[in-house]
Amino acid sequence: MRQKTFKSNLGQVLNKQEKKGHLRNIHFISNTEDTDIVFEKIRKDISRQAMEMEDWGKDCPLKWLLFQQVLLKLKDNNVPISSTKALLKIAKHKDIDISEDNEVKQCLQYCHDMGTVVYFDEENLADHVILDPKWLINALRCLVSDKIDNVVEVSDDWQTLTDTGQLTDSLISRLFKKESELKFEDNKAHLLEVMKRFDIIVNLKDSSELYMPCMIKSGSFAEVLKQFGVRNQPFYKTSWFCLEFKFLPPAFFNHILAWYIKQYSVSVIIDKKIRSKRNALYRHIGVFDLDSSGCDKLVVCVKPNTIGIQAWDLQTPNKTYGDLASNLFKFVDTLQKRYNLHISYTNTFTCKDGDFSIDRKTTDELISRNYLCLEHNTIHISDDLVKPWNFSEELE
């Protein structure tokens, strides 16, 4: 009965969602009562699924396999991270005989692609290899877990993290020391660079300040908009330009937000709750300055399976921002290639005062001169939605 109820609830949760395609099978197990036969059944199912993967059965040089065995033995002997220099020396041993540094790096990249190590042949990352990915996960868990000491929880640094997402160096050290035997603090520099590579943490543009998007508190769009409304001054907004995905992985927006954080200066507001300045960054929203005056801004938001951007200008009406749309396309394409993702999306638009989580319009739906906005129950001019983003030609 419980199993049937679980399946029914799961079906309702995943109803009409593309993520349902990731579901392969459902196994019900008990870690106290079930026999080994049950777990063996799961192992066979996992093996069957693995054999259907693209990389299954690819040829691999024997010496690469020997080198992999050495890496696994190091991990099993509680060596979670190694310098690349040390591994290059091991690879040249006569029993393995990988003499060329470039081939060793290719082998490490192969292991990275298979998920057995974490290695990037990139600036600030190439000098070390994480041999135990679980060790990296445990390091991240130190930063995001709510299981922290009372002294840390009431510290100014922790309050800053939970309020604004800013991660101070002193707080990182205190949190890493929770697991002192795992030596996170000794390898802090590399761990932070890897976390930056995955956009788990990010530096503000032209700044050493670190932010962790997943730890930034939530804020409603209405509250954020209220912070930027200038009394007795014009406030010009474009329509919403949206990328509507069939399925948007939750971490995908973190990559998008991190990219904007690195590209543009984050707008600053006066937070009336804490009576001080803070960056306009929230878990699902970011506001950025498009120029040095602070009068031209970009807001980036996420709703279920949809990313939306809107430009605000405090001086000039009817400006166009086609470059922002094209740059977003390019970065999404880069992300898909980097992480080997196959996710499709559609360009859609919503009126400037609308909620882009509902009643989005494609260019095909805007061919007629006017359209009825269901949210506001009024008629809008179609070109007003697409012109700010240089899509007017698609309506002709």
Share of β-strand residues? 15-25%
Kindly report the average pLDDT value: 89
Oligomer: single chain
Element-by-element helix/strand order = HHHEHHEHHHEHHEEHEEHEEEEEEHEEEH
Biggest sheet features: 7 strands, antiparallel
Class derived from helix and strand content: alpha+beta
Keywords: Repeat
InterPro entries: COR-A, WH-like_DNA-bd_sf
Domain COR: 61-207
Protein name: COR domain-containing protein
Summed up:
By secondary structure, the protein is an alpha+beta fold. It is built from 14 helices and 16 strands.
Question: What can you tell me about this protein's structure?
Answer:
This protein is α+β, with helices and mostly antiparallel strands. Helix content is 38%, strand content 16%. It contains 14 helices and 16 strands. The chain has helices at residues 2-13, 36-51, 62-76, 84-91, 101-114, 133-144, 150-153, 156-164, 169-176, 188-197, 221-228, 250-263, 322-338, 382-386, and strands at residues 81-83, 128-130, 166-167, 202-203, 210-211, 236-237, 240-245, 265-266, 268-271, 276-279, 285-289, 296-303, 306-313, 345-350, 370-373, 378-381. The strands form 5 sheets. Strands 6, 7, 8, 11, 12, 13 and 14 form a 7-stranded antiparallel sheet that branches. It has a 3-stranded antiparallel sheet with strand order 3-5-4. A two-stranded antiparallel ribbon has the order 1-2. Strand 15 and strand 16 form a beta hairpin. It is globular and about 75 Å long.
